[in-house]
Design brief:
The complex is a heterodimer of chains A (about 60) and B (about 525). In chain A, β1 and β2 form a beta hairpin. A four-stranded mixed sheet of chain A has the order 2-1-5-3, covered by helices on one side. Chain A contains one helix and five strands; from the N terminus they run ββαβββ. Chain A is about 10% helix and about 30% strand. Chain A is globular and about 30 Å long. The longest helix of chain A has 7 residues. By secondary structure, chain B is of the alpha/beta class. Helices cover about 30% and strands about 25% of the residues of chain B. Chain B is built from 15 helices and 29 strands. In chain B, the strands form seven sheets. Chain B has a six-stranded mixed sheet. In chain B, α2 links the parallel β1 and β2. In chain B, α4 packs antiparallel against α9, α10 crosses α15 and α12 packs antiparallel against α14. Chain B is elongated, with a radius of gyration of 28 Å. The chains are: A alpha+beta (about 60), B alpha/beta (about 525). Chains A and B meet through α1 and β4 of A and α8, β11, α13 and α14 of B. β4 of chain A pairs antiparallel with β11 of chain B, so a sheet runs across the interface.
Chain lengths: ~60, ~525
């Protein structure tokens, strides 16, 4: 399943979550600081949130 | 005189009429109903510090106190958009019974199943549904008779049809055995079917959805006639309602860290106005719902009891200290359990998964929880011999630093030399005693962290990239590269079940990993 983290395509397995996409993009540690994860509409999303094919998330 | 009496009568009549009309208008204008909503609770009953936060958030007893005060203000409905009973130990150790007791006490009006409601299997799920004093919905789930497709609730004279929709990805997000015999219909088709069935019988249609925020938006674009979607699954913190094609789309984050509030002003069965927001929940001393606190504490005590339960005996000391630099008997044991569970050819995990040792003697649940504190689950992926060799090279590339990537393996043995430079350290690799075939594919059990590329293990990611098709056929996950995935069962719980079946465990180091000069 392809998702996008900070506009970079990442492949994860079905059932994997925001957490896995960040691990795959090597950005998980960023969330240890004050950075949060947002969807393409600007809503914050939880690390255990489900992702759909083509989902776009941003760490900022 | 007669005329005066007549005029007076007409005047009084007109006044009454005016009053009646004013009262009726005022009533119509002020029919406000409140929808309160929660999703993706995952058993997080107690406040906790989310990753990256310095502040405690959530706490279901604090949420319930807020809920009570909001309910006192106007006529309300309380809805759950799913994924309630599985996740945190507080819920898992009673297989979700604790959560249903909470929800009954909080007087939920309806709930839709989330994919994780299936994680304890169908027998447990049926028991939980039968314990619930509120309807449990799943319009697009075929084969589970206890589910209702919808329910009609009347609030302040307004008839509200609530249709429950579950993600059709459920078969690939839980163990296939948990959904055996069930069919998950495409959400849009089921929503359309039941909207048609409810036409003329309700004033407002609410879809209680567990399909994720982007799918909710798509549903509102494609399906006419939905007034409100109360969603879950993507753990989206939708601070205010969004309108898409006349549908109000909502979602209230996760883990009881927020309670969703939507006020609808309804006139003649039509929504004239809406206002919504999230109430963020923080533990404020003394501002909890004492009835709910009592339930939380009751099950916390039960958790403590379960954690102290003896599940077997360690016949030897289990070494979890040296897992980042060499093969250990605890690494072997856990890798073996993972391989056997996933019916894989081999297993490979990062030593960093294992956090502590266990002394010879009684084996308690809390010992295994201390060894495996992370919420990891088992995944098996097909890798070529070449990719396995690359993974091993990566695993031994930072031994000097004591990095967590050091591999603990099952049904695989290899030699390496740390005198060589990283990338050229692995020498002989055997699988089940035979030299590895670099071109052959082997199924490799691991954890979801490594499968996502954690600790720098790129081999799994590369395999996933080249795999496109995943489906459940005959109760088994089928895919080009993915052969097993059970996100609903933490690795530590699998290990506990295994130990319970064996009672006395005495793993020995078998020479799976050998350092050569």
């Amino acid at each position: 399943m392809k998702v996008f983290v900070n506009d970079i395509p990442i492949e994860i397995l079905p059932g994997m979550t925001v957490r896995h996409a960040l691990i795959s993009a090597d950005l998980f540690r960023e969330t240890e600081s004050s950075k949060k994860v947002y969807d393409e509409w600007g809503n914050e999303v939880g690390l255990d949130g489900a992702l759909a094919e083509g989902a776009k998330i941003y760490v900022r | 005189m007669k005329n005066n009496i007549c005029i007076a009568r007409i005047t009084i009549f007109c006044l009454f009429l005016l009053l009646a009309l004013t009262a009726s208008y005022a009533q119509a204008e002020h029919t406000v109903i409140r929808i309160l909503y929660l999703n993706d609770f995952h058993g997080f009953a107690e406040p906790y510090k989310p990753f990256g936060s310095d502040e405690n958030l959530g706490g279901i007893a604090y949420l319930s106190a807020k809920l009570n005060s909001l309910r006192n203000e106007t006529d309300s409905l309380l809805l759950s958009a799913g994924d309630m009973i599985q996740g945190n130990n507080w819920a898992n150790l009673s297989q979700g019974e604790a959560v249903i007791e909470l929800m009954n006490a909080m007087k939920f009006d309806a709930m839709v199943l989330g994919n994780h409601e299936f994680d304890f299997g169908q027998d447990v799920l049926k028991k939980r549904i039968s314990e619930a004093k509120f309807p449990v919905l799943g319009a697009n789930v075929e084969g589970l008779d206890l589910l209702k497709p919808y329910v009609i609730k009347e609030v302040a004279g307004v008839k509200i049809g609530i249709i429950g929709i579950v993600t059709d990805d459920t078969p690939v997000t839980t163990h296939p055995g948990n959904v055996a015999g069930l069919a998950f219909i495409y959400p849009e088709d089921s929503a359309q079917k039941y909207i048609k069935e409810l036409k003329g019988r309700t004033d407002i249609i609410v879809v209680l959805s567990h399909i994720g925020y982007s799918a909710d938006r798509r549903l509102s674009e494609k399906v006419e006639g939905i007034n409100v979607i109360v969603g879950g699954h993507s753990h989206t913190k939708a601070l205010s309602p969004t309108i898409i094609n006349k549908t109000i789309v909502l979602q209230a984050w996760e883990h009881a860290k927020a309670l969703g509030v939507l006020d609808l002003t309804v006139e003649d069965g039509r929504i004239e106005k809406y206002e919504g927001h999230l109430e963020e929940i923080r533990p404020e001393p003394g501002r909890d719902d004492k009835n709910i606190t009592a339930i939380v504490e009751k099950y916390r005590e039960k958790v403590d009891t379960v954690l102290n339960e003896t599940v077997g005996e360690a016949g030897v000391d289990f070494d979890g200290e040296n897992v980042r630099e060499k093969e250990t008997n605890l690494g072997d044991l856990i890798a073996d359990i993972m391989r056997e569970t996933a019916l894989a050819d081999i297993a490979l995990i990062n030593g960093g998964t294992i956090r502590t040792s266990i002394k010879k003697g009684e084996l308690k649940v809390k010992h295994i929880y201390a060894v495996l504190p992370f919420d990891n689950y088992i995944v098996a992926v097909r890798l070529t011999g070449k990719q396995i060799r690359e993974a091993l090279e990566h695993g031994v590339s930072a031994i000097e630093e004591g990095a967590g990537r050091f591999p603990q393996v099952s049904r695989l043995s290899f030699t390496y030399s740390s005198a060589e430079k990283p990338g050229s350290r692995v020498k002989e690799v055997l699988i089940a005693g035979n030299p590895i075939d670099l071109n052959k594919e082997y199924s490799v059990a691991t954890n979801d962290f490594l499968a996502a590329g954690g600790d720098g293990y790129k081999a799994f990611g590369d395999a996933v990239k080249s795999s496109r098709d995943f489906s459940v056929v005959g109760g088994t996950m089928k895919g080009e590269k993915l052969t097993y995935s059970d996100s609903g069962r933490w690795l530590r719980d699998v290990v506990i079940e295994y130990i319970k079946g064996k009672r006395i465990i005495s793993p020995a180091i078998e020479g799976r990993t050998t350092e050569t000069p």
